[in-house]
Amino acid sequence: MKKFLTILLSYSFLMIGCNTSSTEPKDLSDAEVIEMIQNAEKIVVPTSELPNQSQNILNQEYYEYDGLVNWKASDLGYMTELAGRGHRSGMYREAYFNMEGRKLDPNDRDDEDKRKEEWKCFDFIYPITFNMPDGSAITVASKDEENWVELKSWYDDNPDTDQKPIMQFPIDINFEGDITITISSEEELDRAYSSCKRERDYEEFDCGQLVLPASYKMSDGSTIITVENESGYQAIRDWQEANPDARGEVTLTYPFDMTFKDADGIEITITINNDEEYRAAQIEYCLKDRD
Question: For residue 18, what is the DSSP state?
């Protein structure tokens, strides 16, 4: 799964004392260490570079989540962003670890300010259909746990597979305030999850808008469908229903245009030609100088 880097913080941090037998700051609560990790300069690291203890915790305690991206704050610890799956779809949470891999507790603090580990990011608009590894398709009618039983049972009956189900795109998701947007690929869904920071409003997330028409490559790798307007996404849904055995993802093809607002609030249109330009535009107009 391709991951898009969604946060670029550039704060400096002050190390408050070090225990010579541990990399963890001395005499600080877990919540205070977490806050330092959040405000520190961080780099992206693969899951394989997390301490073994952290990897085991993610596998055992967060099995209902997919990892979006792992961040390392030097001499402080790690932050892992997680997206809910199954009946927890639409939920977002973060996990924190010290440098040795111990899980940090956000509620370990001296005051009454208790941090949430998980919060609602958005609602999926159901039904949603998944392509299973054997080529079959399972449709989930709602987010209620009982509606995910068929999908869970498939994996109980196929214990040797480690492939995840592939969600059929496009799908619609709804943010608070009745704001509904169409998600057309796994990458766009990852970016939606990664926008779910506390106290971040929709206007900050919605800093870039795709300009239609835009073309999408279907999951067979050859069919191209051009979407002229919002109603044009139905053609993609129709193609997926007519081709249930097609594997892979529906992907937005380059080049395409996007509108952004610059530092003065003036709307500008930029042509995006590749992944690097897309990432640079997101950082420049969506993430730069934002907390």
Answer: B
